[in-house]
TrEMBL record:
Gene3D superfamilies in alphabetical order: archaeoglobus fulgidus dsm 4304 superfamily
One Pfam family per UniProt: Endonuclease_5
Keywords annotated in UniProt: Endonuclease, Hydrolase, Nuclease
A biological process term (GO) from this entry: DNA repair
Name of the protein this chain belongs to: Endonuclease V
InterPro entries given in the database record: Endonuclease-V (IPR007581)
Molecular function terms, GO-annotated: endonuclease activity
C-alpha cells in the first residue's frame, strides 16, 4: 500500500489529505482528512517547518510499517548537494525507515537529484525524486500509474479533495 499526502492552507488553518492506494489503482482505497488550526507561519527556505506537522497528523493514524512508500507533493532534495527538502525531512522524521517519493510539478534549478517524466500528451514533465527507494524504479511506476494525463488519476484526485471546500469542517 502507498500513501500520498497533500496540504491546502487557508490563512492559519490547513486541510491535510492522505490517500491510500496500490500502484495500479484508478481510485484511492481510502481517504483520510484532518483539519489543523494554528499552523506554523511560512518561512521562505523552511517550508518543511510548516508542512511536516501537518503531514504527521495523517501519518500518525496509520501503521507506516505497512506502507511501501509515501508520496509528497514536492522534492526530496533542495539542491544538488542533497540538502533535504520536504521529502528528505519527512524521511528523517520517520527514522529513515519509510521510503519517500517526491512528485513535483515544477523545479527551481538544474537539479541532478530528479528524473523528469512526461505522461500522456503533455509536454510538461513531472519531476520525480526519491529517498530509500530506487529513483529509476519509482519513476517508471509513476509513469505507469493509471490515467492518460500528466498527473496520475490518484494524485489528481488527492489534489481535488485537498482543495475542495465542500469538505470543510
Amino acid at each position: 500500500m502507498l500513501l500520498a499526502l497533500d496540504v491546502h492552507y487557508r490563512e492559519e488553518e490547513a486541510k491535510v489529505v492522505g490517500v491510500l492506494f496500490h500502484w495500479e489503482d484508478a481510485v484511492p482505497q481510502d481517504v483520510i482528512i484532518e483539519y489543523i488550526d494554528d499552523v506554523e507561519e511560512y518561512i521562505p527556505g523552511q517550508f518543511y517547518k510548516r508542512e511536516l506537522p501537518c503531514l504527521m497528523k495523517i501519518i500518525e493514524k496509520l501503521d507506516i510499517g505497512q506502507l511501501e512508500a509515501i508520496i509528497v507533493d514536492g522534492h526530496i532534495y533542495v539542491d544538488n548537494d542533497r540538502n533535504y527538502g520536504l521529502g528528505g525531512r519527512l524521511y528523517e522524521v520517520l527514522e529513515n525507515k519509510t521510503p519517500i517519493i517526491g512528485v513535483a510539478k515544477t523545479t527551481f534549478y538544474n537539479n541532478e537529484t530528479i528524473t523528469e517524466i512526461k505522461r500522456g500528451k503533455s509536454n510538461n514533465p513531472l519531476y520525480i525524486s526519491a529517498i530509500g527507494i530506487d529513483l529509476s524504479i519509482v519513476s517508471q511506476k509513476i509513469l505507469d500509474m493509471y490515467g492518460g494525463f500528466r498527473i496520475p488519476n490518484i494524485l489528481k484526485t488527492l489534489d481535488q479533495i485537498t482543495k475542495n471546500d465542500s469538505n470543510s469542517k
